[in-house]
Design brief:
Glutamine Phosphoribosylpyrophosphate, subunit 1, domain 1, 18% helix, alpha+beta, 278 residues, globular, 16 strands, seven-stranded antiparallel beta sheet
């Protein structure tokens, strides 16, 4: 489901441990954008943590008081490659959407699934299709309150970080870490799932929810009970009503939790809206 980190001027820089956890839990590539004046510098396409962290720690634009957005990807559509890593400039040009370095005054990072925006060629991601076909035209003029509300309605269940007119706008439910002041699009920064598992590995493991607990199996593990649609329970509020499913991703309307049954982990969504008005 990906994870986004937003750092405002007062928040601490994320530690190497936090960055490594986010990458291990979302290892289909990463990138970041850092604000300078009314523009952002996008640097993305890192498929290995070592490459990303070397670039990140040597980037002189990244300082203690900078404004910064990082994105770590789990692909839900499109190719798994450098070109499809976030963030993206808000543009209708594919060459710009797939560029690994870009300077722009409008940009987006997205966490979630945008249904109905699949690439028929299965090359671009849903975020890229949404950006070039919808968001680009919405942002030809200033994002006024009615357009922001339209964006919220179009992207229900997602978390977005949009840069426009020199400011960041956060849409959806975000988690603020009280110790650092950093804002996260879900709780996947708290525990490194890959290294916390006692058996199996990230790419060979699956999670299934059964009654009141999550059970894990690997190819070498004994058979584990799997769920049917009528047996789906939310792993956070333990309720089975008001749960929606889309292509293996579940959303609980009761507590706004989002989780994925395929090679993923449940992610907690807390209501902590810190929207910046343009």
């Amino acid at each position: 489901m990906c994870i986004i980190i937003y750092k405002d001027k007062t928040a601490a820089l994320p530690t190497k441990k936090t960055l490594k956890t986010c990458f291990n839990n979302n290892d289909d590539g990463c990138g970041y954008m850092v604000k300078q004046g009314k523009t952002v510098f996008i640097n993305k396409g890192f498929m290995r943590f070592s490459d990303f962290y070397t670039e990140f720690k040597n980037d002189k634009k990244i300082t203690k008081d900078c404004e910064l957005v990082l994105h770590f990807r789990i692909a839900t559509g499109g190719l798994v490659n450098a070109a499809n890593c976030h963030p993206f400039p808000v543009t209708d040009k594919v060459a710009e959407l797939t560029a690994n370095e870009f300077i722009t005054d409008k940009a987006i990072a997205h966490n979630g699934i945008l249904s109905g925006f699949d690439d028929i060629n299965k090359v671009l991601s849903d975020t890229q299709i949404f950006t070039k076909d919808i968001l680009y035209f919405l942002m030809l003029e200033n994002l006024k309150p009615n357009l922001i509300e339209a964006l919220r309605n179009l992207t229900i269940g997602s978390r977005l970080c949009i840069f426009n007119q020199g400011n960041f706008l956060l849409l959806g439910n975000w988690i603020t870490d009280k110790k650092t002041g950093l804002q996260f699009s879900n709780s996947g920064y708290k525990v490194d799932k890959r290294h916390n598992w006692k058996q199996g590995s990230w790419k060979n493991s699956s999670y299934f929810y059964s009654k009141s607990k999550w059970t894990k199996y690997t190819k070498d593990y004994i058979e584990s009970e799997t769920i049917t649609e009528s047996e789906v329970f939310c792993p956070f509020c333990d309720r089975s009503d008001n749960i929606e499913e889309y292509n293996g991703t579940y959303y609980c309307k009761n507590c706004e939790a989002v989780w994925d049954e395929n090679e993923s982990y449940p992610t907690e969504s807390e209501s902590d809206k810190n929207n910046v008005n343009f």
